[in-house]
Specification:
The complex is a heterodimer.
Chain A lengths: L2 H20 L2 H21 L14 H31 L1 H6 L5 H29 L7 H30 L2 H6 L1 H9 L13 H9 L1 H14 L4 H32 L1
Chain B lengths: L2 H21 L1 H21 L15 H31 L1 H8 L4 H28 L8 H29 L5 H13 L12 H9 L1 H13 L6 H29 L1
Classes of the chains: A mainly alpha, B mainly alpha.
Chain lengths: 260, 258
């Protein structure tokens, strides 16, 4: 199969995936509304935490802005998983398996909708952040890097949702993993910098939790400017998770296609 | 119609729901998991917040967070019972129940029995975890009676609200319509820091949010320093009374549809 045919297949499935995502307000609105709501409540409720010695900024809103990007990416897992599970449940995947479609085209095409949703989220959260006074210390280029990292995180979490959907073929099971992903967010340096977390076991969990580094990568661009170590760790964690989950999803897709 | 008929309907519905609840882990997990998440994340991740100037809660940050999580677990026990009602309507069980029950208000009372059981189970688990995590309750038996009574009233109000929604919409898709208002009421209160330390619009929202009074009174009981007890009970009972009317309207709506 030629490269142009592959590109055509990816393009067609990507178009379908993007159109399907954009046509479901129930998928887009909560993915934008809930991260912004949590950001708004957190930043008012915990504003006094900026008085702690060593807190890196005097605006909790600026500190908490990164949470919206990662929480938004968690919704990607649900969206991707729900869409893939629907394709399994409705038999769409069965019909595709009878065509000469390549597996990689199917996988990339399915994830295009998630990237489109991730882009809308990242641009919205950045816009809200800037409008409400959270300056991006790393400037315009930093904002572009935030969008890139945010898309990578969305891809990684989206693959988790797609993997679960392909393994189980059930939309309900995909919804069931949401609390686990939510726990990963809550057991990170989401609310305070790691060096200010007082409880030892929590600090240890947050240090081992890759979500902490994804948050800190975005946060560094908002608060500090260009911090090579934070960015390297953030991109490394997001890339590692994305690669690992892409491989797992590809394997699950192969198994699913063989079953049909 | 005799009181015995009401009681027998309530007990039958209550027993069925309690039985279903303990037989089905998928129903237990969400009501317990979310308050536990919040307890772990806040008590563990935010414990340093008690060093913020102006944070004057003597019982410590774990107890401060426990006050909120207790209320959340009680409210969720009620709200998730609303989910069960919606599921019963979707499966057609409620329609048969409405035809068979000689006194239909007993159906709501039965669901309330299930909601109380759920809340007590949730609260017990969370209290055990909190005690293991170092919770220090300074309040005596009378304080604890006040604390848990307040939690049960909140549970009843949440369950009645949820049942009103479930009986009007009669679908599981009504879940967000039950959960989101409860979530907003709970989180627009002083969750992480005392009311005086809140800033911005959440401070304004907490000022008019009735849950603020209930939360502050609950935390007062835990710290053996009761505050705003009468207003808190008045507000909680008021919420429950409004919810009774809301649930009764829901029952009428379901009766018309049956």
């Amino acid at each position: 199969m030629s490269r142009s045919t592959l590109a055509l297949q990816v393009g067609m499935l990507a178009r379908r995936s993007v159109v399907r995502t954009m046509r479901q307000p129930a998928m887009i609105v909560p993915a934008l509304f809930f991260p912004l709501l949590l950001l708004s409540i957190n930043s008012s409720g915990l504003d006094s935490a900026t008085n702690l010695p060593g807190f890196p900024t005097d605006s909790y809103f600026q500190f908490a802005l990164a949470i919206a990007f990662v929480q938004g990416a968690l919704f990607s897992a649900g969206s991707a998983g729900t869409n893939v599970a629907a394709d399994v449940e409705t038999g769409f995947l069965n019909r595709l398996s009878l065509t000469p479609l390549r597996r990689v085209a199917l996988l990339l095409g399915q994830l295009a909708g998630i990237l489109a949703l991730g882009l809308i989220q990242a641009v919205t959260f950045l816009g809200v952040g800037v409008v409400f006074g959270a300056g991006i210390e790393a400037g315009v280029l930093g904002a572009l890097v935030i969008v890139s990292l945010s898309l990578l995180i969305s891809l990684a979490f989206g693959c988790i949702g797609a993997f679960v959907a392909l393994r189980t073929g059930s939309g309900e099971t995909v919804q069931g993993i949401f609390p686990l992903l939510f726990a990963a967010l809550f057991l990170s340096s989401m609310s305070l910098p790691r060096n200010l977390i007082e409880t030892d076991w929590f600090q240890t969990v947050a240090t081992w939790n890759p979500v902490s580094y994804m948050l800190e990568g975005i946060r560094s661009l908002v608060i500090t400017g260009w911090d090579g170590q934070a960015l390297a760790l953030g991109f490394a964690c997001a890339t590692a998770l994305a690669v690992l989950m892409l491989a797992a999803t590809s394997s699950a897709l192969r198994t699913r296609m063989m079953r049909t | 119609m005799s009181r015995g008929t009401f009681t027998s309907v309530a007990l039958a519905v209550g027993w069925r729901n309690v039985h279903n609840y303990f037989k089905n882990p998928a129903m237990i997990v969400p009501g317990v998991l979310f308050p536990l998440f919040f307890f772990t994340a806040f008590a563990g991740g935010l414990s340093r917040v008690d060093s913020v100037p102006g944070f004057d809660y003597a019982a410590g940050y774990t107890a401060f967070v426990y006050g909120f999580v207790l209320l959340q677990a009680s409210a969720f026990g009620g709200i998730f019972t609303g989910f069960s009602i919606a599921r019963d309507f979707e499966s057609g069980f409620s329609r048969r129940l409405m035809l068979a029950a000689p006194r239909r208000s007993g159906i709501i009372a039965g669901y309330w029995v299930a909601a109380v059981t759920r809340a007590m189970f949730n609260v017990l688990l969370i209290t055990v975890v909190a005690l293991i995590a170092g919770l220090d309750i300074a309040g005596g038996p009378v304080d604890l009676l006040g604390l848990y009574t307040l939690a049960l009233i909140v549970n009843a109000a949440a369950m009645l609200f949820g049942s009103g929604v479930a009986m009007r919409l009669r679908t599981m898709q009504a879940g967000p319509a039950m959960q989101v208002p409860a979530f907003l009421f709970l989180f627009l209160a002083p969750v992480w820091v005392p009311y005086e330390l809140l800033a911005g619009w959440v401070h304004t929202a907490a000022t008019v949010n009735p849950v603020t009074l209930v939360l502050e009174a609950g935390r007062g009981f835990i710290a053996a320093d009761p505050v705003k007890v009468l207003p808190a009970f008045a507000v909680a009972l008021g919420l429950a009374a409004v919810s009774v009317l809301w649930a009764r309207g829901g029952l009428r709506s379901a009766e018309r549809a049956a």
